[in-house]
Design goal:
The chain has 407 residues and is α/β, with parallel strands linked by helices. It contains twelve helices and 18 strands. Strands 2, 4, 5, 7, 8, 9 and 10 form a seven-stranded mixed beta sheet that branches. Strands 15-14-13-16-17-18 form a six-stranded mixed beta sheet, sandwiched between helices. Strands 1-3-6 form a three-stranded antiparallel beta sheet, with no helix packed on it. The longest helix has 20 residues. InterPro entries: DUF58 (IPR002881).
Length: 407
């Protein structure tokens, strides 16, 4: 039975047809039998030679038309993909079916199928466009190529291995100016906050050692030429304290994936704003495996945080206050804590109070989508009473408006 199971029913059907035509020629004879045998033999020869169409040795390449030189794109972006195919050999191929796979880390998979008609040189290219991509890491799987004979009886397959990986960044919004933050530390809280946040430096006459990630405009060329080592300039005491963005990843706090994506986008937007204003910024990502990035002023440091934000998920179970207390030794007085979370009320109040008790400055970036107006007003009044800065954000567009001074 093994030899019968090895081949399909179509194969045995064609083999039987050939056998019948042969027996008909041998036992009946005549021109008709001979003509039938020649036709069936030619058909069988064509089907047999189709097996060596060259599809199994297909070569090709893949091009991302709108992200050729970028390993990352922003969430919501749709990629235009082009696949070039070269099929070796000479046997005619009516068409080639192309199946390409885009796999997101975590198991989500997109399958794209299209048809290609090769030219006389057995070459061709096809294009398709992905749907808007979610935040995360992606890679392209193997590309399946298949073709059939002109009768559609047998299918022949090949495979292209064109590995390519890329990341999809969280969506961001440009924050022109965080007015209340600057007013806060230039006003009545200026002396106490900045005194706690000042740090000692190795600055001598406006020159310090070069730190990897410093911008080109910060390099002190004269000092670099004199000393023979890289030097940077404009290293002054910070007028604003170090900032730590706290991203709450508690799975029970978020009502939907969209709410968590909004939280990640807010954190990414604040990170961009801090980098544009040369603020030392860090991140406390509170989840199943909490991670802390201490505040630094460096492009490479920002890139590490962004790479972390690409792949975070709402998988936390521990209360925020417990994580803060567990890592209390890492926080110095004067840090500006921006807590991005949908939690509010009695659930969040102890965490904000603990931050203040440690002589740090809390701010609540509240994911207020699907929260009633009455509950929002009640929590805002509580924040005002305790002197805590807070913003209710229901969409990413609201973030820039809220921080820009719009109430």
């Amino acid at each position: 039975m093994g030899i019968f199971a090895r081949y399909s029913a179509r194969f045995w059907g064609i083999a039987s047809l050939f056998a019948f035509s042969l027996f008909y020629l041998l036992f009946q004879g005549g021109k008709l039998a001979f003509m039938i045998f020649i036709i069936v033999a030619a058909l069988c020869l064509y089907l047999a030679l189709s097996r060596w169409s060259g599809i199994s040795k297909t070569q090709g390449g893949r091009t991302l038309l709108n992200a050729e030189h970028e390993a990352v794109v922003e969430a919501g972006t749709s990629l235009a993909v082009q696949i070039q195919v070269q099929i070796p050999g000479f046997w005619p191929i009516p068409y080639v079916s192309i199946k390409d796979r885009l796999v997101r880390r975590g198991g989500e998979e997109h399958l794209f199928e299209t048809l290609l008609i090769p030219d006389w040189k057995r070459r061709g290219e096809v294009s398709y466009r992905t749907p808007p991509l979610r935040r995360g890491y992606y890679h392209f799987g193997d590309t399946d190529c298949s073709t059939e004979d002109i009768f559609g009886l047998f299918q022949h397959k090949g495979r292209l291995e064109l590995p390519y990986s890329f990341g999809v960044l969280p969506q961001k919004v440009h924050i022109r100016e965080w007015k209340q933050l600057h007013q806060l530390f230039r006003g009545v809280h200026h002396h106490s906050a900045t005194t706690r946040s000042h740090r000692e430096t190795t600055q001598i006459n406006g020159v310090r050692e070069f730190i990897y990630g410093d911008r080109l405009s910060r390099i002190h060329w004269n000092a670099t030429a004199k000393t023979g080592t890289w030097k940077s300039k404009e290293f002054e005491r910070e007028s604003l304290p170090k900032t730590v963005i706290v991203l709450d990843r508690n799975m029970r706090a978020y009502r939907s994936k969209e709410h968590f994506e909004l939280a990640v986008s807010i954190a990414a937007s604040l990170l961009d704003y801090a980098a544009s204003r040369d603020l030392a910024v860090g991140l406390l990502s509170v989840g199943k495996n909490s991670k802390y990035f201490e505040p630094k002023l460096s492009a490479s440091h920002q890139k590490v945080i962004v790479n972390h934000l690409i792949d975070v998920e709402p998988d936390g179970t521990y209360p925020l206050i417990d994580v803060l207390k567990d890592r209390a030794r890492l926080f110095t007085p004067g840090i500006f804590f921006t807590v991005v979370t949908p939690q509010f009320g009695d659930t969040l109040a102890p965490s904000l109070a603990w931050i203040e008790q440690r002589q740090m400055n809390p701010c609540h970036m509240w994911i207020a989508a699907d929260v009633t107006a009455a509950e929002q007003d009640r929590w805002k009044r509580h924040l005002q009473t305790t002197g805590v800065m807070g913003y209710a954000v229901s969409s990413l567009d609201e973030l820039a408006l809220a921080l820009g001074g719009r109430k």
